[in-house]
Amino acid sequence: MKSLLLVVATTLLLPIETALAQVAATIEGVQMPAWVERAGRRVPIIPGMELRAGDQVVTGAGSRLLVKLADGSSVKLGENGQLRFAELSPARELFKAALNVLEGAFRFTTDLAAKTRKREVSIRAAQVTAGIRGTDLWGRSRQGNEIVCLIEGEIEVVAEGEPAVSMNQPLQFYRRIEGKAQPIGTVEKAQLEQWSAETELQAGKGITRRGGRFSVLLATADEQNTALALYDELRNAGYPAEIWPVKQAEKLVYVVRIRQLPSRAEANALANQLRGKFGITEPKISG
Question: What is the CATH number that goes with domain 207-286?
Answer without folding.
Answer: 3.30.70.1070
